[in-house]
Amino acid sequence: MADKFENASSLEMNHSGKRLTKGVARRRILVGGASVAGVAATFLAGRAQANTQKPLEPKVATDRNGKFAGKVVLITGATSGIGEATARAFAKEGAIVHFCGRRSTLGEKIAQEINAQGGRASYQRADVRSEQDVKSFIDTCVQKYDRIDIAFNNAGAESKPATIAERSLQDWMDSLNTNATGVFLSIKYEIPHMLRQGGGIIVNNASVSGHVGFATIAPYSASKHAVISLTKVAALEYADKNIRVNSISPGAVDTPMLRRALAAWNTNFKEVSQDYPIKRIVNVEEIARAVMWLSSDEASCITGMDVDATGGYLTK
Ligand SMILES: NC(=O)c1ccc[n+]([C@@H]2O[C@H](COP(=O)([O-])OP(=O)(O)OC[C@H]3O[C@@H](n4cnc5c(N)ncnc54)[C@H](OP(=O)(O)O)[C@@H]3O)[C@@H](O)[C@H]2O)c1
């Protein structure tokens, strides 16, 4: 891992094409890896706290007359991280949430917890790489709840760090299948229901990696660029059908994915947060609220846009 670091950092350029100093280049790679790389680890839990804000989600009971009362919200990949937080946040505001992921035990547990708190949620096992699974997941939502008002196409997975020459075709395809084809399939099967019901709202989860290149994560970066392209094209295709399609680009958010990534890169929250103008790691609840804003009437004239939720990284 250390060798890869040094090799990659010696090639790193900034956005103007200038060669970066080794230290700066190394940190940029770390930040890219932080959004994407991955091996399981929990060792960061202690160190991470120093630079993480407390969850901002207010401790309130479910409000069935809340801001999204009666809205049907479909979420891919809500068995952990940003998807889970967004499912819980929508449910607290009165929405009916139908979500997927591959880990059934976690999915059932999260649905039970939401329902026990007075919310309404259902979990269905679905793998977004499978056209049959995605179609079944979306059609089941409509069979159960008659419609899909809001779809958050969130499911995604990190790439293992490797240069392009070292990357296997299978590895490349795995990332593209989950992150890009998964979003394509989701939009493909959501749109007919939204057309039938006279409108709808789609938010896709992209990434800072969908805007800039990070050395050693080509599949993740390419797949997230694809998410932003899909967002723009879908927005144009259905703008006059009362369907809004936007994306959101988080930077470094405290999720299991980020913790796996930091472990893979042997770094920590404190170091990574220094590359972001807000100098901290974002909470999942903050991303949930940005998704909810894009999904609300307050964003009624916004379509085809990507929201920079990095805390200023893309402004630099
Ligand atoms: N955390 C960050 O810093 C960050 C930054 C930028 C963008 N993002 C994006 O945010 C999204 C959520 O990531 P996260 O950070 O919340 O990571 P996470 O905690 O690992 O959550 C990923 C979710 O996606 C699901 N998923 C992965 N592959 C799937 C598949 N083939 N089919 C169905 N579901 C699948 C996972 O469920 P199962 O494992 O149960 O299938 C899980 O619920 C991703 O698209 C990621 O690229 C994250």
Describe the structure.
With 316 residues, this protein is an alpha/beta fold. It has a single domain (64-251, 282-315), classed as Rossmann fold (3-Layer(aba) Sandwich). It contains eleven helices and seven strands. The protein has helices at residues 2-11, 22-34, 45-49, 81-92, 104-116, 131-145, 169-197, 218-238, 256-264, 269-273, 284-294; strands at 72-76, 96-101, 120-125, 150-153, 200-205, 243-250, 306-309. A seven-stranded parallel β-sheet has the order 3-2-1-4-5-6-7, with helices on both faces. Helix 4 links the parallel strand 1 and strand 2 (96-101). Helix 6 packs parallel to helix 7 and helix 7 (169-197) packs parallel to helix 8 (218-238). The structure holds NADP nicotinamide-adenine-dinucleotide phosphate (NAP). NADP nicotinamide-adenine-dinucleotide phosphate binds at residues 35, 76-83, 100-103, 127-129, 154-157, 178, 205, 207, 250, 252-253, 255-258.
How are the SSEs ordered, and which strands pair?
Layout: H1 2-11, H2 22-34, H3 45-49, E1 72-76, H4 81-92, E2 96-101, H5 104-116, E3 120-125, H6 131-145, E4 150-153, H7 169-197, E5 200-205, H8 218-238, E6 243-250, H9 256-264, H10 269-273, H11 284-294, E7 306-309
Parallel strand pairs: 1-2, 1-4, 2-3, 4-5, 5-6, 6-7
Helix pairs in contact: 1-2, 4-11, 6-7, 7-8
The structure holds NADP nicotinamide-adenine-dinucleotide phosphate.
